[in-house]
Design a protein that fits this description.
Layout lengths: L17 E3 L5 E3 L8 E6 L6 H12 L1 H6 L2 E7 L3 H11 L4 E4 L4 H5 L3 E6 L2 E6 L2 E5 L5 E5 L7 H12 L1
Parallel strand pairs: 3-4, 4-5
Antiparallel strand pairs: 1-2, 3-8, 6-7, 8-9
């Protein structure tokens, strides 16, 4: 199963998508145009140490993102039920979207092959995209570190004004 080699770059139109959230409601990226900037972050798995830290840090900054007309959306291959449990366990405010077949992950170029116990397996490279109100990618950050990342993204958004 090949992964997408094309990396997205600032200035490109953000690939459109629709995915279900933790409550099985459909989130449409195009529905945010003209209303909000979108921080779209891809993470490997619900309820793992790094992913929990990242989601909690984004949640802690929810008000600061809201002041910048920005919503934060996380995407992983976990299903909606897993997302709901993850959200509820930690009181997360970020919107968690389910991409079980990695269709959107591939569009954004965040899939890679890794070896686990001698088996090749597809995984998500922790990555974040900042999409402005016109639907344009302002930042495309691949292979980011979980700790401190939310603050880094908030700083980038504040500089967009």
């Amino acid at each position: 199963m090949p992964t997408q080699a094309v990396a997205l770059q600032a200035g490109m139109e953000a690939p459109h998508f629709e995915l279900p959230d933790a409550d099985m409601e459909t989130f449409k990226l195009v529905g945010q145009q003209g209303k909000h900037n979108v921080v779209l972050y891809f993470y490997p798995r619900d309820d793992t140490p790094g992913c929990t830290m990242e989601a909690n840090e984004f949640t802690d900054l929810e008000e600061a993102f809201a002041q910048q007309d920005t919503i934060v959306v996380g995407v992983s291959r976990d299903d909606c039920i897993s997302h709901a449990c993850f959200r509820d366990k930690y009181g997360l405010s970020v919107l968690l979207l389910s991409d079980p077949d990695a269709r959107i992950c591939r569009k954004y170029g965040v899939m890679y092959e890794k070896e686990v116990d001698g088996q090749k397996k597809l995984a998500i490279k922790r990555s974040t995209f900042v999409i402005d109100k016109t639907g344009t990618l302002r930042h495309a950050l691949y292979a980011v570190q979980a700790h401190g990342h939310a603050q880094e993204i908030l700083t980038l958004i504040k500089e967009m004004k």
